[in-house]
Write a structure and sequence with these properties.
The complex is a heterodimer of chains A (569) and B (161).
Chain A: H1 9-13, H2 23-44, H3 50-59, E1 62-64, E2 69-73, E3 79-81, H4 82-95, E4 99-102, E5 108-113, H5 118-127, E6 144-145, H6 159-170, E7 185-187, E8 202-208, E9 214-220, E10 232-238, H7 243-257, H8 268-275, H9 277-290, H10 293-296, H11 300-307, H12 321-331, H13 333-342, E11 343-345, E12 351-356, E13 367-369, H14 370-383, E14 387-390, E15 396-402, H15 406-415, E16 430-431, H16 446-455, H17 459-465, E17 470-473, E18 487-494, E19 497-504, E20 517-518, H18 525-542, H19 549-556, H20 559-566
Helix pairs in contact in A: 2-3, 2-5, 4-14, 7-9, 12-13, 14-15, 16-18, 18-20
Chain B: E1 2-5, E2 8-10, E3 15-17, E4 29-32, H1 33-36, E5 49-53, E6 69-76, H2 83-93, E7 100-105, H3 112-117, E8 122-125, H4 131-138, E9 143-144, E10 154-155, E11 158-160
Parallel strand pairs in B: 3-4, 4-5, 5-6, 6-7, 7-8
Antiparallel strand pairs in B: 1-2, 1-8, 9-11, 10-11
The chains are: A alpha+beta (569), B alpha/beta (161).
Bound molecules: protoporphyrin IX containing FE and iron/sulfur cluster (SF4).
Chain lengths: 569, 161
């Protein structure tokens, strides 16, 4: 690659948008891997029972699945460097079957790994600054963030710095490694919700207070799964310097009082439903007041020590960049279409962010082959300062593309089937692994997603339908967010047969956050596809000017949709 | 059972009393909390005293007895039940207890540094245990990222354990 003219030296030495490891971080990972090696050895020689080994295996991201062991690799705040993505390609190619699966939690899963190879995989991952720590288990999981961090025009502070602080703080936390249940945190540096803030154990947005200082708005007790619940605001004015103290207070109350004898009641959301948010807040404030806040304060020194390990993007002014892009768009209709759907504005007038859809018609949503990973790593280096982001909807983002270079990038992406112009449209389906891989599944989800995608593959039809999201889950755990999608499909088991329930009207983001309503009795796979076709046709007939699917649904209510699907059945 | 301190097995002079109070207490008694709370005048006791405190009660309940207590034992019903980690921390940080803090119940060697970092000083382990594992895990990690009762030297978020 010899296109580094626009990248300064500091950028080539430090990956941008993420924390770069130093000797201490590498040393820590080595200690961790050695510990896991010894745990595997103790399991194999019988010193550890499977029951004792399981939590340690899970805390290293190793699941026992239907076909083999699955390994889940953390992508902290969803940011990858080209080097890391090539590292993932290597794992996919040599330890798996040539592909990986990106998840809604900004992780990647490898579904075909062998337990005895895991320590070697971990060692390799460590060399590219990746790990699997706390990607599973009843502990604080990978911290997710806004895929447009450091790009969005409305950003108040860079959430990735705080996400990194939380990553370090939560890693092998002595007090919080054996919580009642898993614990998920997401953070955005903006007050506009792009992270589904109300559906995390803790969700954090950033606002400006009356003095124009950034403060955190902290949501707690949201979640999906068997009992979907919208979170509540526990505090709307937390000074960022107290973030860790406040998190410890919230989680300590949960650790002490969360249910430990019923798996389905052990998430923080249930505790908060039972106690009431006011009571919970009171307990947290009491704990917070009793803490030695100085010990927890994120001082300027600490902030600097984290920040200086982040590479900074070197954005340059490019004469006529916007005009060049405009010209390219006028000249090429397909390119224009892709830009319409798959781009996002950058705060710098000469740059643009672009969404790489992993929703190819005929392919598994969220899957990426090793060859595609390598290709995208190269393209990211050439056109986006060597940085790639993973979205919470199973797509990728190149954050810093020069507008005048977007056209060339698009041409290159096309060669690798990475330029599908469907972001936010009906074929941009979020889908869990389902019965093809997952031991908890009731039904297949990938097949449903593929069928829906092929039904609507005509891009003009997709455009006519407009923004609409679909989530397909193989069971009620809701890994693909079906509860909070405009259309949710849920696999259920009826006497050993695969059936599917449809949910309508879900919405993921703060202002209109809604858990969808069940449309009616469960259907077979063929019936579900037919039902979705009818629902969409009905919406197209009924919709008024400028309405999206969700607007029409909200205006009409569920009954007419129910009739359309079940009347003729 | 064996008693472990700083990675070494040590003598355990303490005797746990859970059911009912004997007429005279042994030299080093650990009373269950329910027995302790029936002592209406604990000021009269002039000997070392310990308590076995359950994991589902608020540690504030120990406040009235604090001056008399030389030992607090907390309980891990299973190694997956992490409530006592938070209780230990509260006992050290909020109650400012400086005596022996003992982990009882089921704990694994892999949890050793978690235990010491939240303030435990001793651990009860089964006799059949491979002590080498405990020794190895006592100082396995040399790096941590959180505040701890041990107040390790820090640089930024990193602590040298
Ligand atoms: C294949 C192995 C997987 C297993 C065994 C698994 C297991 C689970 C379970 C048991 C829950 C329910 C938690 C609860 O209700 O308390 C859950 C929730 C969730 N999982 Fe998965 N999952 C898997 C894969 C995935 C994938 C592939 C994704 C992303 C596409 C994902 C993302 C999520 C999300 C977003 C939630 C809901 C949020 C919440 O925790 O409330 N998981 N998962
Ligand atoms: S939703 Fe159910 S079937 Fe799908 S991945 Fe999650 S646990 Fe497995």
């Amino acid at each position: 690659m010899n296109h580094f003219s626009h990248i300064s030296d500091s950028n080539t030495s430090k990956a941008i948008g993420r924390y770069n490891y130093n000797d201490v971080d590498f040393e820590f990972l080595t200690e961790r891997i050695n510990q896991f090696r010894s745990q595997i050895k103790r399991r194999l020689n019988g010193e550890l029972t499977e029951d004792e080994f399981k939590p340690f295996r899970l805390m290293n991201g190793v699941y026992l699945q239907l076909n083999s062991y699955m390994l889940r690799v953390a992508i902290p705040y969803g940011t990858l460097s080209s080097k890391m993505l090539r590292g993932l390609a290597y794992i996919a190619r040599y330890y798996d079957r040539g592909y990986g699966h990106f998840t809604t939690r900004q992780n990647i899963q490898f579904h075909w790994t062998k337990l005895e190879e895991v320590p070697d995989i971990l060692t390799y991952l460590a060399s590219v600054e990746l790990h699997t720590i706390q990607t599973s288990g009843n502990c604080i999981r990978n911290i997710t963030s806004d895929e447009f961090a450091g790009v969005a025009q409305d950003e108040i502070l860079d959430p990735r710095i705080y996400a990194e602080i939380m990553r370090q703080w939560s890693t092998l936390h002595p007090e919080f490694s054996f919580l009642p249940r898993k614990f998920k945190i997401a953070i955005s540096g903006s007050s506009n919700d792009r992270i589904a803030v109300c559906f995390y154990d803790i969700g954090i947005l950033t606002c400006l207070n009356k003095q124009n200082k950034p403060v955190f708005e902290i949501w707690v007790g949201g979640g999906l799964g068997r009992i979907p619940i919208k979170g509540k605001i526990i505090r709307n004015d937390l000074p960022p310097e107290h973030l860790l103290a406040y998190l410890e207070a919230i989680i300590r109350v949960y650790n002490l009082h969360g249910s430990r004898n019923n798996l389905y009641k052990s998430r923080i959301k249930i505790l908060i439903e039972n106690l009431g948010i006011d009571n919970y807040r009171e307990q947290v404030e009491k704990e917070f007041q009793a803490m030695d806040l100085d010990q927890y304060r994120l001082s300027n020194d600490i902030m600097t020590s984290i920040q200086e390990n982040f590479g900074q993007p070197n954005l340059v002014d490019v004469p006529n960049a916007s005009e060049t892009l405009k010209k390219h768009r006028q000249e090429n209709q397909a390119f224009n279409q892709w830009v319409n759907h798959n781009s996002y504005p950058h705060f710098h007038k000469d740059y643009i962010a672009t969404i790489i859809s992993l929703k190819n018609i005929g392919e598994t949503p969220g899957d990426m082959t090793a060859d595609q990973m390598d290709a995208l790593a190269d393209l990211a280096e050439e056109y986006s300062l060597g940085e790639i982001r993973v979205t919470h909807l199973q797509n990728l983002v190149l954050g810093h593309v020069r507008k005048d270079q977007l056209y060339v990038l698009w041409q290159a992406l096309q060669k690798h089937h990475l330029a599908v112009p469907n972001q936010g449209l009906i074929t941009d389906i979020v889908c869990c692994p389902g019965l093809d891989y997952c031991a908890l599944a009731n039904a297949r989800s990938i097949s449903i997603a593929k069928k829906i995608m092929s039904l609507f593959q005509d891009i003009h039809l997709q455009e006519k339908i407009g923004p609409l999201n679909i989530g397909v889950d193989g069971c009620i755990n809701s890994c693909a967010h079906h509860h909070i999608m405009n259309i949710g499909v849920l696999g259920v088991n009826k006497k050993g047969e695969e059936f599917y329930q449809i949910k309508l009207g879900g919405f993921s983001y703060k202002n209109n956050a809604t858990i969808g309503s069940i449309l009616g009795a469960a259907l077979t796979m063929e019936e579900v596809i037919e039902a979705i076709r009818k629902l969409i046709n009905f919406y197209l007939e009924q919709r008024q000017k400028n309405e999206y699917f969700i607007d029409t649904f909200n205006r009409l209510g569920i009954n007419p949709f129910k009739e359309i699907v079940y009347a003729s059945a | 059972m064996l008693l472990l301190k700083d990675g070494e097995v040590i003598d355990n002079p303490w005797v746990t009393i859970e059911d009912h109070l004997p007429t005279s207490l042994p030299e080093y008694p650990i009373l269950s909390y329910s027995l302790l709370s029936t002592l209406d005048d604990n000021d009269k006791i002039n000997q070392p005293l310990g308590v076995l405190f359950p994991c589902d009660l608020d540690i504030e309940l120990l406040n009235p007895f604090l001056k008399k207590l030389s030992l607090i034992a907390l309980i891990f019903p299973t190694f997956k039940d992490g409530r006592a980690f938070s209780q230990a921390r509260q006992i050290r940080e909020h109650l400012k207890f400086t005596g022996e803090l003992r982990a009882t119940g089921q704990v694994l060697p892999d949890q050793y540094q978690f235990l010491t970092r939240v303030g435990f000083t001793t651990i009860m382990i089964p006799e059949i245990t491979n002590i080498e594992n405990w020794k190895e895990n006592h100082h396995h990690f040399t790096i941590g990222f959180q505040n701890s009762i041990l107040k390790e030297a820090r640089h930024g978020l990193v602590r040298k354990l």
